[in-house]
Amino acid sequence: MTQPQRILVVDDDPDVRSMLSDHLAQAGYQVDTARDAAAMWQLIARSQPTLIVLDMTLPGEDGLALCRRLQAHGHPAVIVLGALDAPAERITTLETGADDYVAKPVDPRQLLARIRALLRRMQAQNDGADNLGLLSFDGWQLDRRRARLISPRGQAIALGRTDHQVLCALLDHANCEVSREYLVEHIFQKNYLPSDRAIDMSISRLRRHLDNHSTRPQLIRTVRHVGYMLTAHVEPGT
């Protein structure tokens, strides 16, 4: 029998913790809860959750900094619960490497749908990584299993989940135009909206990594009115 996936809900409001814990448990997930960052790190070490639902406004903590730390160290996927239903806050949160953003007050049915969609994307990513581990391009290597870039100088760079998926898609279509619509639908499994900047922000982060260490800048080219193209020969790594 497959072990239920484990979700960690981090929120200082006991009513929110109880509501989300009950709803997710009824949907078949194992659920842990934490009221602050200290308890969150302890539970991560002990129970190794697949996904974290993280309140952005924990008392005494910078939610964005917590999100950066989670992503930088390859910790579980993160869905942020934000205080505002505003594009600026959503964009800022996604720029830190969060996988999704849901505004409060939380509709548990909507959150459950977002969790299921994110877990499907993660499973698809893992299936792809099982089929092809290392990819080499222009002196770089991408370790798909560990979501890690290795620079031509041997420096390892951990990638957030979205950045990793975007780079995988570009490598799979190297030297071909890849539309924003395709990337949004392939990675986020939702319809593309011209106002959605999540892909553009991911490309910006990837460029910072690649251009800072590459002998040939602009490995990722912008294709006007279309999307992006990665211009490099790609082959299996050794």
What does this structure look like?
Helix 6 (161-172) crosses helix 8 (198-213). This protein has helices spanning 14-26, 37-47, 63-72, 87-95, 108-131, 161-172, 180-188, 198-213, and strands spanning 6-10, 30-34, 51-55, 77-82, 100-103, 134-137, 140-143, 148-150, 156-158, 178-179, 220-223, 227-230, 234-236. It folds into two domains: 6-126, 3-Layer(aba) Sandwich (Rossmann fold), CATH 3.40.50; 132-236, Winged helix-like DNA-binding domain superfamily/Winged helix DNA-binding domain (Arc Repressor Mutant, subunit A), CATH 1.10.10.10. The model has no long low-confidence stretch (mean pLDDT 82). Helix content is 44%, strand content 22%. It has eight helices and 13 strands. The longest helix is centred in the middle third of the chain and has 24 residues, at 108-131. A five-stranded parallel sheet has the order 2-1-3-4-5, sandwiched between helices.
Ordered list of secondary-structure elements with their pairings:
Elements: E1 6-10, H1 14-26, E2 30-34, H2 37-47, E3 51-55, H3 63-72, E4 77-82, H4 87-95, E5 100-103, H5 108-131, E6 134-137, E7 140-143, E8 148-150, E9 156-158, H6 161-172, E10 178-179, H7 180-188, H8 198-213, E11 220-223, E12 227-230, E13 234-236
Helix pairs in contact: 6-8
